[in-house]
Design brief:
Protein name: DUF4375 domain-containing protein
Structural class: mainly alpha
Strand content: under 5%
Order of helices and strands: HHHHHHHHHHHHHHHHHHHHHH
Helix content: 55-70%
Number of strands: 0
Number of domains: 2
Distance between the termini: 57 Å
Largest sheet: none
Shape: globular
Keywords: Signal
Organism: Aureimonas glaciei
Signal peptide: 1-26
Number of helices: 22
């Protein structure tokens, strides 16, 4: 069979073959069928704590700075859903919500979906794909029919029964291209099906809408939302601000994007920069795009009454001489172009130890509370 014929066969199989449902992920009473499984809450009788979500809220952008989206509530992981030592029924009883809803949210919010969803192609490389049949059922119950259809079609490419083990999936069909750089027929077929699953942003939006349509799921998300701490809410806010700002853009573009933020958001964004996980601490900050805002970062820390932290940043600025180069290109060419670790690199690395990330985050939370900008 030629590669072209094999590719056509694989695509046809993915379109028409029936997937295997494999082993049971949860009790049959909970995950029985696509009609909804076993629920305790009913559409006419929402459980206590139900957070009514209007259609306008469901249609609004998930990046609202005032309201945390359902997907971001799940990303914040207020509970370790799926923990075998803390079953969903026990968690549900403590929260006063439906165990059915928690189990479905657990399947819909796996890290490999909420953080690494790239059109299904990479999903099957992770162990979470061992439960792909159950994830497809959960997607169907939540009304995520497009993602469900794409997932089931991709599963069919692996044959029947669907391999539950990630190593077995890798052995059965090669994910990678050939040594010559030519994609295998299976690789092409999987990418073909992956296009139908959509982007991570689309999944976020459709998950939000699906949860808004289902009172059981809405009640569970409302309970999880209420458990979020202010530090988690702050992290979501900084994440939202960062999504539309390109730190790797040109110096003028990056500075304009940050400095054009409203004051309450600008102060928080600037203060967050020394707390970011730069691989080499302040050396990474000054060598990267954030170095172009070093004077403003110091001022933001000063505004948060963190004089000692501001002094650390200004001490780093002084290491570059009497005229600090705002241009990232110039800064790199003059101070970070040499191979190996320079004395400046060592000094900045040593200076990093004096950054108190905990104190900065605490001060940011206090300011965000005072300004009323923590998302809910």
């Amino acid at each position: 069979m030629t590669p072209a014929v094999r590719l056509i066969v694989l695509i046809l199989i993915s379109l028409f073959a029936l997937p295997s449902t494999g082993r049971a992920f949860a009790p049959a009473a909970t995950l029985a069928g696509d009609a909804g499984g076993a629920r305790r809450c009913r559409a006419a009788d929402p459980p206590a704590g139900f957070d009514e979500v209007s259609s306008s809220a469901a249609d609004s952008s998930n990046r609202s700075l005032r309201r945390i989206s359902a997907a971001d509530v799940l990303r914040s992981s207020p509970l370790a859903l799926g923990n075998p030592f803390y079953p969903a029924d026990i968690v549900a009883a403590e929260l006063g919500v439906d165990a059915w809803a928690l189990e479905n949210l657990d399947l819909l919010s796996l890290d490999e979906i909420l953080w690494r969803w790239d059109g299904l192609y990479g999903f099957f490389l992770f162990p979470a794909a061992d439960d792909a049949p159950e994830i497809a059922l959960a997607m169907g119950r939540a009304g995520l029919q497009r993602q469900r259809a794409a997932l089931q079609a991709a599963m069919r490419l692996f044959g029947n029964p669907f391999p539950r083990d990630s190593q077995e999936r890798s052995r059965r069909n090669a994910f990678m291209t050939s040594p010559a750089g030519i994609p295998s027929p299976f690789d092409i077929a999987l990418r073909f099906q992956s296009q139908a699953s959509g982007s991570l942003d689309a999944y976020d939006q459709e998950l939000e809408e699906a949860i808004a349509r289902d009172r059981c799921l809405s009640a569970a998300v409302a309970a999880l939302r209420a458990m979020l701490r202010d530090h988690q809410r702050l992290l979501r806010l900084i994440d939202w601000l960062s999504r539309d700002i390109d730190v790797d853009a040109s110096t003028p573009a990056y500075r304009e994007a940050v400095l054009s933020l409203p004051l309450e958001f600008r102060t928080l964004y600037l203060a967050s920069r020394p707390t970011m996980t730069h691989a080499s601490g302040l050396q990474g900050m000054f060598a990267g795009g954030d170095g172009a805002l070093a004077p403003e970062i110091a001022q933001a820390l000063e505004d948060l009454r963190l004089a000692q932290q501001a002094a650390v940043i200004r001490e780093g600025i002084a290491m570059f001489g009497p005229s600090f180069p705002i241009s990232t290109v110039e800064r790199r060419e003059l101070f970070f172009a040499s191979a190996g670790i320079s004395p400046l690199d060592r000094n900045l690395l040593d200076l990093s130890a004096r950054i108190d990330r905990g104190a900065i985050v605490d001060a940011m939370v206090l300011r965000a509370r005072a300004d009323g900008v923590l998302p809910r």
